[in-house]
Amino acid sequence: MGEDEDPQKLKRLGAAAYDYDNDPKWADYWSNILIPPHMGSRSDVVDHFKRKFYQRYIDPDLVVEPMSISSTSQPAKPSASSSSSTSNGQTRSRNSGSTARTSGTSTNSTPNPTSLRWDRHTVQFSVNAWVFVVAVLAIFPLLPRTLSNRAYRLAFMGTACSSLYSLYSLYGKPRAWNMQAVQVWFQSVIATKDFLHFIYCLSFVTSHLYLKFALIPILCCVLEHVAKFLRRNFSRSSLYRKYLEEPSVWVESNTTTLSILSSQAEIGLGFLLIISLFSWQRNILQTFMYWQLLKLMYHAPATAGYHQSVWSKIGMTVNPLIHRYAPFLTTPISTIQRWWFR
Question: Which of 12, 82, 125, 340 is the S-S candidate for 78 at Cβ 3.0 to 4.6 Å?
Fold first, then answer.
């Protein structure tokens, strides 16, 4: 018996010691769990879902026992005498109609914490839906240029605000406003997708360049969030089933395709900014900062897989041409690669 339990004990210790705060997949996993807020604040509930996360992504052999909530969600079992009196009281209350008043009171008091939890998702959905409409207006060819440019900036501003709100909801604010606490908080969010989206939007909303191509990653991200929210909250709606169910299912089943398309657009924008350096609209600082962002996207766990795949395809296409027609570029490219992988 002891020999059978020792491996699972070690696995449970490993799951308890795992650094969940620095794993961006844990933040996404926890944000997609729909439980009442009063249970989400309990340590035993959080530990249970951490073990589920560890079993799914780290160690599939870990055995996670089902969580028992009967002892916490129900009151203590009454004694025999009190149970008999309670049953009599319940019979009388049903006859007098007091049960209806009691149930009405409970239904009025319970939705408050749940509605507070849903408000966060509803706010993000509203902002993302607004960004989608504004981004479509920005790329619409028949729209006047002034209105199109304004919609272009509003799309980036809306996505930046949504990313900041998501970061605050998932990670909160620094524990203290000193250099050490801010640095610890910054290290925990710098590799997350929301932070990368915020920096991406910030680099374009402050620029005088209007590259409509830059809206592709925003549209991909917004479509994914909107489709997920609609499918979770409006699946029983007849309007959703008639008009939006098929597009939402397609978006959710093709998130990998959208992520690859977004990565290709982000890398293509880097080369467009380099080309813009030879025009009167050049912005050397924006180009340098954007390539720093591309480097971060290449190494961040949330986007590394897609960016590395795109860069490998670019390398397989470009490297033979450079070795054949422009061998003098080998030395500067190797220098850039050392900086890139550093």
Answer: 82
Let me know: does 220 contact 259? Beta carbons within 8 Å: yes
- C-alpha 240/C-alpha 230 separation (Å) is 8
Q: What is the pLDDT of residues 5-20, one digit of tens each?
A: 567 787 788 788 787 8
CA distance 135 to 330: 40
Q: How far is CA 256 from CA 22, 26, 71, 305, 307, in A?
A: 23, 19, 42, 10, 12
Which among 124, 186, 231, 170 is positioned nearest to 31, based on CA atoms?
170
CB-CB contact of 308 with 297 (8 Å): no
Structure confidence by residue, pLDDT tens digits, 168-223:
888 888 888 888 888 888 888 898 999 999 999 999 988 888 889 999 999 999 99
For residues 168-190, one letter each, b for 16 or more C-beta atoms within 10 angstroms of the residue's C-beta and e for the rest, the string is eebbeeeeeeeeeeeeebeebbe
Nearest to 308 by CA among 188, 231, 328, 316: 316
Query: What does DSSP assign to residue 41?
Result: T
pLDDT digits (tens, 9 = 90+) for 128-165: 999 999 999 999 888 898 999 999 999 999 999 999 99
Strand, coil or helix: 112: helix
Separation of alpha carbons 188 and 201, rounded Å = 20
For the four alpha carbons of 70, 76, 77 and 83, in that order, the dihedral sign comes to negative
> DSSP letter at 75?
P
Length of the chain: 342
CA 30 to CA 56: how far, in whole Å?
13
Q: CA angle, corner 126, sides to 121 and 128, nearest 5?
A: 95
By the 8 A CB rule, do 160 and 201 touch?
Answer: yes
Extents of the domains making up the chain: 2-67, 112-341
Tally Cβ neighbours within 10 Å of residue 106: 9
